[in-house]
Amino acid sequence: MENEGLTTMRNTLSILFVIWFHTGMTQVSIYAGFNASGIQEKHLVGETSGSLMQQIGFSIDISPFNHVPHLAVQTGGGVTSMGYKQEIDQTYQVEFLFLTLPILANYQSNKISFQGGLRLEGLVATSVNDGLETYRDSNLSIMLGLEVFTKSRISPYIRASHQLFYMLNYFEIDARGNFQSELRDIKFQCLTMGIKVRIYNKPISL
Amino acid sequence: MKLKTVIYLVCSFLLSCQEYVQDPIDPRIPKYTESGRDVAGALINGNPWISDGTGFNLYGQEDIDLVYYAPQDSLIIRMSGRFDDHHLNVIINLNKLLIESLIDFRNLQGQTITLDGISHQGVIDMLHFVEPLGGGLGQVYFRKVTFKEHTAGANWLVMSGTFSFTIPGSYDVTHGRFDYSVSDNDFKSL
Asked: Most buried residue, A6, A39, A191, B42, by CB count within 10 Å?
């Protein structure tokens, strides 16, 4: 069965590609940063804590309206890892690797820009056996961001994201082996900091 | 550079995998599944016991033994595993259920059987010439038993469920789960 998250991403990219060819201005950047992922959970055994992971990718800023140059749609593609640690008799670390596709509104104000929107996330690998069967294969995060020194070629960015759907859909089984109810758990909250490098900033010639 | 980073990330994910599919709530024990993965696990006195398929019996090395003793109408379900770096078998002993062949396991589908310590009991077998400890009180739940007839004529079934029992004064077995694919060859009638 095809990964639903990846299909959604492919469709979204197709739409954005069409928009891109009918607009006047675009900016392409690459970025890399660190991702401090926290976990929101209710059922996991032991003490849980977040992990410091990585993020890389590229972004495309499209200005669809020539008369509103401060406003752009920011999208792109990336690889983001998230994870958590579980302290029981030892430390168990679970890591998730997502392909991500943000769709953000980008507001440019002098040397600072603000972003807000959604990020589609398709799970492509985990650090545990059969993680792709255990965990949800796609998710959606609400996202807010800030970039500074946006007039220069290199600019730092910071982003906060919060997953809207639970990653785990499982059984609640008590210690005696009785099945209680369906269990939904685990959402990631991330704070990402990194560097963005602009590699293309020109009008599109149709 | 980017490609190398991605390859490194993917490889590091793959290399850090464990042998069994860990439970997403408590990673010390296997995830509850119903697909015949030949795995069982539990917490014994709070410490993990994981099946390892290295149990030995009269017939060789087995993940699970199903032995039916006709004179007593007694069924032994023996799951081999490791506990604290030692071999330890978890045994469920059921009596008077008329499970005389593999096909009779269909009758257990959805059944929760109370282990009263007498007619039905949980047993811990530490091997190494130590007498098994029986009389375990608790329950075993056969949540899903799917029987299939193999094309070659042999029967097999997928048997999944949970168990827990307490042997007073010694072992408290909790969070037990099993998921085995069993064929006619795994069933012995004596």
From this structure: B42
